[in-house]
Specification:
five-stranded antiparallel beta sheet; alpha+beta; four-stranded mixed beta sheet; 6 helices; about 25% strand; about 300 residues; 2 domains
């Protein structure tokens, strides 16, 4: 089974539905492997070609080294941080449901949504008017009108298929709510209100002891050391790249000679092509602003170790 579902019943009579998509997992694994192999292959290719980075200027050499480090780092990040395994956990005992993702190795568990199931009213199969049938979403509608999406992100829902019908039947039997026979074509339901599990007595005691203030609507997410290192590497790479662009662009404003391109560079002169020269200078300035903002954002988050998260 390349794409499908695996159903599991626990000793507490909880229902765990594991969404399986080996095609997506294989793509993530292949892309990560290629990213890890690329720096070694690039170094071997440079050595066989007889060229040496010794003739390059220091900034270009540093940019090359950072790029060779950044590519495998992105491959590892793709393998570690991509949630290729998704599970829908339903518990009648707790009256609660969760949508959880894990990475390729079954680690780095992350809960994307937590919702109540003990006050469910009915299901809705809904699709956007311009979307394909595979973009159909299953929503759980509560008695107070709050809605919760139950559809996984890695397995498409195709009404009428054997795989989808089995998935819908398992959820319907467990929650004892009939499934709709037709798909509603229209916009998505009203966004669900956030549900948070009740805090444990120990957590309440710690908050009272520390006299923690009421959390604001804008929350932050703490980043681990690997994520901060990756952001620092991206920020350093973009900062060095921006510095090389500044060294190229600023002198051209005084000399009237702008050279762009890497493999086949083209030179523009203010005296011969003032409009084209001005256009490329403005594009270069805009490029510097965009890259600078991104680089500063990556370095700032890497240093602070936290970033804004949805409440």
């Amino acid at each position: 089974m390349l794409i499908g579902y695996q159903f599991e019943r626990t000793a507490r009579d909880d229902l765990h539905i594991h969404s399986i998509n080996w095609v997506q997992s294989g793509f993530v694994l292949l892309a990560s492997a290629m990213a890890l192999i690329f720096p070694g292959a690039a170094v071997l290719a440079i050595m066989e070609a007889g060229s040496s980075p010794a003739g390059m200027d220091p900034l270009s050499s540093l940019l090359l080294v950072l790029g060779l480090l950044l590519i495998p780092a992105l491959g590892l990040a793709l393998l570690v941080y991509t949630g290729t395994r998704e599970t829908l956990l339903l518990s009648r005992l707790d009256g609660e449901g969760k949508r959880r993702t894990q990475n390729f190795f079954g680690r780095r568990e992350r809960v994307h949504s937590v919702f109540r199931i003990d006050a469910a009213k009915h299901f809705e199969l809904r699709r956007h008017p311009e979307a394909k049938p595979a973009a159909t979403q299953l929503w759980l509608v509560m008695r107070d009108g709050i809605t919760h999406r139950l559809t996984s992100s890695n397995v498409p829902i195709v009404p009428g298929s054997k795989r989808t019908d089995l998935w819908l039947r398992e959820i319907s039997d467990y929650l004892q709510i009939p499934m709709p026979s037709e798909v509603t074509v229209g916009s998505a339901p009203v966004a669900k209100a956030a549900y948070r599990p009740a805090p444990t007595p120990a957590k309440i005691a710690r908050q009272r002891k520390a006299k923690a203030p009421t959390p604001s609507a804008e929350t932050t997410e703490q980043l681990g050391t690997p994520a901060r290192a990756l952001l620092a590497l991206i920020g350093a790479f973009l900062a060095v790249f921006e510095l090389t662009r500044i060294i190229t662009l600023v002198p051209s404003l005084f000399t009237g000679r702008l050279r762009i391109g890497i493999s086949r560079p083209t030179t523009f002169y203010w005296a011969e092509q003032p409009m084209t020269f001005s256009f490329h200078v403005l594009i270069g300035i805009a490029e510097l602003l965009v890259i600078g903002v991104i680089a500063w954002g990556c370095l700032r988050v890497a240093i602070e170790g936290r970033m804004k998260a949805n409440p």
